[in-house]
Design goal:
The complex is a heterodimer of chains A (180) and B (227). Chain A has 10 helices and no strands. The relative contact order of chain A is 0.10. With 180 residues, chain A is mainly alpha-helical. Chain A is globular. Helices cover 40% and strands 23% of the residues of chain B. Chain B contains 8 helices and 9 strands. In chain B, the strands form 2 sheets. A 5-stranded antiparallel β-sheet of chain B has the order 6-3-2-1-9, with helices on one face. In chain B, a hairpin with a 6-residue loop joins strand 4 (158-164) and strand 5. Mean pLDDT of chain B is 82; it is low at 79-93. Classes of the chains: A mainly alpha (180), B alpha+beta (227). Chains A and B meet through helix 2, helix 3, helix 4, helix 6 and helix 7 of A and helix 1, helix 3 and helix 4 of B.
Chain lengths: 180, 227
């Protein structure tokens, strides 16, 4: 893994239009971001398209990186995750008003996902483990699958406001654990 | 809301924003607040960092080489666009009217070298601006493009172009033709000496200097600039 300061240096040079720095950042980070893109989209062609879009965004937004306060890997992962989630949501909306929850529940990991599936590491995993399984599951689904409150409400057969209240409470508990 | 409850609400809101659970109007309102409030931004940053660590267990997968090619094509392939954005740098480097004329010259000459290649330019001008010649080196063809924009050789005389590199004696690049534009092919030695060199034009008899050095008055000089 390339050092944080090296990544920051590359991003600041990209902001000045340095193509070599861009190639360097791509070499250092594209496998990780492609892994994330594949994990969210579970479709190789779409994950490749998403990765293209992500790096185009990185090139165009590099000059605004300094002000956002995120570490470089978090910035890159966030751009990737958010873009992949946008695609995933568009795909779900395009599929119409099916019983989405049931459909999603049946979505078993394909071969790609099996290769890359691993349990999450780090303290957030430990803290998620302290929540009710249903609630930690909902947080993971919101982050990795981009499920909305409406989708979670269907999945857990609860009114939307109830879902929102219990997910917010779960997030605050998670924060308490993370900051302890 | 008590300050404590407000703080909790903000933490939850930051998490919802990071997860993309807010409606578009809610998300925009949160962003507007975050841009004014560094504390709220810090809440978001902490959430973004923690949530990103959910991807720690995702193994890297090397994308196929075609992806990088496609990205670079999208960002850089439009040679014209790249060239134009790169031309935008010229004023910062040269400044003022000279920059404007050089940009015009390089553009009109169609010197569409890729921005990766060094482009040397010079405005070779007489002190009183009675003679102005623009020069640009095109790495793709190893030629020096010349355009005389003002003045001309005196009757029965010619203009000869020289490169002066460091303390070395001037090296002739050739006699300028009567036409306003010309392309001079450069030798490898001359190309190597362009960086930091000076171009000069001297007044010479027809056919140019026979001594290998300028024999007439030096009419105009200009430093070679790397763009």
């Amino acid at each position: 893994m390339t050092a944080t300061t090296d990544l920051e240096d590359m991003i600041s040079r990209i902001a000045l239009g340095d193509r070599k720095a861009f190639a360097g950042l791509y070499a250092a980070t594209s496998a990780k971001l492609f892994g994330v893109s594949l994990r969210v989209l579970n479709n190789r062609a779409e994950a490749e398209d998403a990765l293209q879009e992500v790096y185009v965004k990185v090139w165009n937004a590099a000059d605004r990186y300094q002000v956002n306060g995120l570490s470089p890997m978090t910035w890159l992962i966030t751009i990737t995750r958010n873009h992949a989630i946008d695609r995933l949501r568009a795909r779900r909306n395009a599929s119409g008003e099916l019983d989405e929850a049931a459909e999603l529940a049946d979505l078993s990991p394909g071969p790609e996902a099996l290769v890359i599936a691993k349990s999450e590491a780090g303290r957030i995993a430990g803290c998620l483990g302290q929540l009710d399984p249903e609630k930690s599951d909902a947080v993971r689904r919101a982050y990795m699958e981009g499920e909305t409150y409406a989708e979670l409400a269907v999945r857990y057969a609860q009114p939307l406001n109830t879902i929102r209240t219990w997910l917010r409470r779960s997030l605050l508990k998670l924060k308490e654990c993370l900051s302890s | 809301m008590t300050p404590e409850a407000q703080k909790e609400d903000d933490h939850a809101l930051a998490a919802e924003y990071a997860l993309g659970l807010l409606t578009p109007p809610e998300a925009r309102a949160f962003e507007a607040r975050m841009n004014r409030d560094p504390v709220l931004r810090a809440y978001y940053v902490i959430w973004a960092e923690d949530l990103a660590s959910l991807t720690n267990g995702i193994a890297p997968v090397s994308p196929p080489p075609a992806v990088l090619k496609a990205i670079e094509t999208r960002l850089f392939a439009s040679e014209k666009q790249g060239f134009l954005s790169w031309l935008g740098l010229i004023p910062a480097l040269v400044g003022g009217l000279i920059a404007a004329t050089l940009v015009y010259f390089v553009t009109s000459f169609g010197l569409l070298t890729t921005p990766d290649e060094p482009l040397y330019v010079a405005q070779i001008a007489a002190e009183d601006q009675s003679l102005i010649v623009l020069a640009a080196y095109d790495a793709a063809t190893e030629t020096l493009a010349i355009e005389r924009t003002k003045g001309a050789a005196a009757a029965g005389r010619v203009l000869q172009l020289w490169l002066i590199a460091g303390d070395n004696p001037p090296v002739s690049l050739g006699v300028l033709p009567d036409a306003a534009t010309a392309e001079l092919t450069l030798t490898a030695e001359v190309i190597a000496a362009l960086d930091g060199g000076t171009l000069a034009i001297s007044d010479e008899p027809p056919g140019g200097s026979t001594t290998g050095a300028p024999t007439g008055a030096v009419l105009a000089v200009g430093a070679v600039t790397l763009l």
